[in-house]
Amino acid sequence: MKYPKFMTMINKACGYISGAIILGASFLAVMESILRKVFLSPTRWSLNLTQGVFIWAAFLGASWALQEVGHVSIDMIRDVIDKHTKGAGRMPRRIIAICSYLACGFVLFVMLRAGWNLSLRAIQFNEYAAYNFKFPKIISYSAIVTGTVLMLLTIVFIILDLIKGNDKYLA
Predict the structure, then answer these.
(1) Rounded Cα gap, residues 17 and 57, in angstroms
(2) How many CA atoms, within 13 angstroms, populate the side-chain half-sphere of residue 78?
(3) Nearest to residue 66, comparing CAs of 11, 137, 133, 5?
(4) How far apart are CA 168 and CA 162, in angstroms?
(5) Residue 163 half-sphere exposure toward CB, CA atoms < 13 A
(6) Which of 154, 163, 155 is nearest to 7 (CA)?
(7) Which of 63, 133, 139, 170 makes a 20 to 30 Å CA pair with 126?
(8) What is the pTM of this model?
C-alpha cells in the first residue's frame, strides 16, 4: 500500500493551517510589543490568546512533519547499519524504522488517551484556562486529541508504506 493521497492532502492542509496560526500569533506578538513599548498600553488578552492557539499550531503541524520526514532522526545509527549490512539490502534499516514508528505510535496513543481524558474533564467541569479572559480549556485539549489522531493515522500509513517496500520513510 502506497502512502494515501488523501492523507497527504489532509496533512498538507493542517500544515498550512499551522503556518497561518503561527503567522497570526507572530502578528499578535509584534502588535503587543508595539502597544507595550511605544504606547505604554498593553492588551490584557493577546499573550494569553497566542499561548492558547499555539498549541493548535504545534499539533496540526506535527502530522505534516511526520509525513514529510521533518522530524529528528539519528543519522549515526543509520550510517552504522548501512555500513555493516551492505549485502543485506535495506531490510535491517526497514525493520528498525518500523520498530521506531511503532514506538512513536505507542507514545502518541498514550498522549491521545491523556488528551481525551483532559478533554472530558474540561467539558464535565466546564474548566477555563487561568487567563485574563475566559478561554475554555477544551479548545486547547481538543488540539491534543486532533493532532495525535492525525499523527497516529500518519504513522499507520507510514508503517504500511514501509512494509510494502517503499523507501521514502527510511531516510
Answers:
(1) 7
(2) 12
(3) 11
(4) 8
(5) 10
(6) 154
(7) 63
(8) 0.87
Residue with cell 539490502: 89
Closest CA to 142 of 115, 107, 121: 115
Tens-place pLDDT, residues 100-121: 899 999 999 999 999 999 999 9
Residue 128's DSSP bridge partners are: 136
Give the whole-angstrom CA distance, residue 143 versus residue 11.
14
What is the distance between the alpha carbons of residues 106 and 95, in angstroms, rounded to a whole number?
17
| DSSP-derived 3-state class of residue 19 | helix
CB 25 within 8 A of CB 50: yes
Please determine, for residue 171, whether its predicted confidence score (pLDDT) is greater than 90. no
pLDDT digits (tens, 9 = 90+) for 52-98: 889 999 999 999 999 998 766 666 776 777 677 665 567 888 888 89
Q: What are the boundaries of each domain within the chain? A: 5-170
What is the model's pLDDT at position 88?
A: 57
